[in-house]
Amino acid sequence: MIRVVLAQPRGFCAGVERAIEVVERALRKYGPPIYVRHEIVHNRHVVEDLRTRGAVFVDELDEIPPGAMTVFSAHGVAKSVEEEAAERGLPVIDATCPLVAKVHNEGRRYARQGREIVLIGHAGHAEVEGVIGQVPAKVYLVQTVDDVAKLEVKDPEKLAYITQTTLSVDDTRGIIAALIERFPAIVGPDVRDICYATQNRQQAVRDLARHVDMLLVVGSRNSSNSNRLREIGAEMGKPSYLIDDADALRGEWFQGIATVGLTAGASAPETLVQGVLDGLRRFGEIEVCNQNGVAEDVRFRFPAQVADV
């Protein structure tokens, strides 16, 4: 018998739910195809499901036919992408998560103050590329404390920092501390830019890891917040696996394991969690219980184009 403890909270956050429903509402209102720049959220199953319903995912706007309804993903886009869409006359629905948009606004506010910006984030991530492209100032990307040590800026007295929304809270605090030590005049939002859902899921995993023998995280490889959850479990000394779905489960993982913690990244649907529970039953009897945790009730408004659908 394996005891499985379900993390609370887990899975979809309000920004992801909103982004997916924006595409679903657009398909209902305008009919397929709806073109989406980049994956609407970083989950293979979600993307494939929307694709079967008529969403077409593209890397760049030049892949979209003239006049076709276009959706920007939850991760946000650079100002240049917005301008290109306007030049081409593409009707756009912006599904950028409001918490990512808040980081854009903070960056622009610091730029208006004449500051250079340090962005704490992961190189190449869609959200990071969008933030850099939204801030009309010099932006330095740092990923580690070591990056801070090597950072050369124009004016240490006119510096601000902002952060990607899906980072590890603990790692980010360390990087912020290093920035403040090196550049005492720097200003920024502490870890408030890390979204509530990311923080809640990380705290749930920290609490869970104290009481389980192993951690399973449902999420895609390119999901930043899902990767952070697996890393937290590993840092706490527990075997921790990031899996797309039940097909990734391996019987040998469960030798000598009595209790498994199960969570899901903010872009992973609950159906995949339930599928993993079914998959675990292939290896024997399981007992499922729920962790006591934060109940989330955040809801974001929809863009005007699909608010009435």
UniProtKB/TrEMBL annotation:
Residues that bind [4Fe-4S] cluster: C13, C97, C195
Instruction: Kindly give the InterPro entries that the UniProt entry links to this protein.
Output: LytB/IspH (IPR003451)
Cross-referenced CDD domains, in alphabetical order? lytB_ispH
Cofactor details (free text): Binds 1 [4Fe-4S] cluster per subunit.
Taxonomic source organism: Rhodopila globiformis
Question: Which pathway does it take part in?
Answer: Isoprenoid biosynthesis; dimethylallyl diphosphate biosynthesis; dimethylallyl diphosphate from (2E)-4-hydroxy-3-methylbutenyl diphosphate: step 1/1; Isoprenoid biosynthesis; isopentenyl diphosphate biosynthesis via DXP pathway; isopentenyl diphosphate from 1-deoxy-D-xylulose 5-phosphate: step 6/6
What does the UniProt record say this protein does?
A: Catalyzes the conversion of 1-hydroxy-2-methyl-2-(E)-butenyl 4-diphosphate (HMBPP) into a mixture of isopentenyl diphosphate (IPP) and dimethylallyl diphosphate (DMAPP). Acts in the terminal step of the DOXP/MEP pathway for isoprenoid precursor biosynthesis.
Q: Which domain of life is it from?
A: Bacteria
The UniProt GO MF terms for this protein read: 4 iron, 4 sulfur cluster binding; 4-hydroxy-3-methylbut-2-enyl diphosphate reductase activity; metal ion binding
Q: List the EC numbers from the record.
A: 1.17.7.4
* Amino-acid positions noted as binding dimethylallyl diphosphate in the UniProt annotation, renumbered to this chain: H42, H75, H125, S223, S224, N225, S267
- Name of the protein in its database record: 4-hydroxy-3-methylbut-2-enyl diphosphate reductase
Q: Which gene encodes it?
A: ispH
Instruction: Quote the Gene3D superfamilies the UniProt record gives.
Output: 3.40.50.11270, 4-hydroxy-3-methylbut-2-enyl diphosphate reductase, catalytic domain (3.40.1010.20)
Which parts of the sequence bind (2E)-4-hydroxy-3-methylbut-2-enyl diphosphate?
Answer: H42, H75, H125, T165, S223, S224, N225, S267
List positions binding isopentenyl diphosphate: H42, H75, H125, S223, S224, N225, S267
| Family statement | Belongs to the IspH family.
Q: Which cofactor does it need?
A: [4Fe-4S] cluster
Active site, per annotation? E127
What keywords would UniProt list here?
A: 4Fe-4S, Iron, Iron-sulfur, Isoprene biosynthesis, Metal-binding, Oxidoreductase
One GO-annotated biological process of the protein: terpenoid biosynthetic process
Q: Which reaction does it catalyse?
A: isopentenyl diphosphate + 2 oxidized [2Fe-2S]-[ferredoxin] + H2O = (2E)-4-hydroxy-3-methylbut-2-enyl diphosphate + 2 reduced [2Fe-2S]-[ferredoxin] + 2 H(+); dimethylallyl diphosphate + 2 oxidized [2Fe-2S]-[ferredoxin] + H2O = (2E)-4-hydroxy-3-methylbut-2-enyl diphosphate + 2 reduced [2Fe-2S]-[ferredoxin] + 2 H(+)
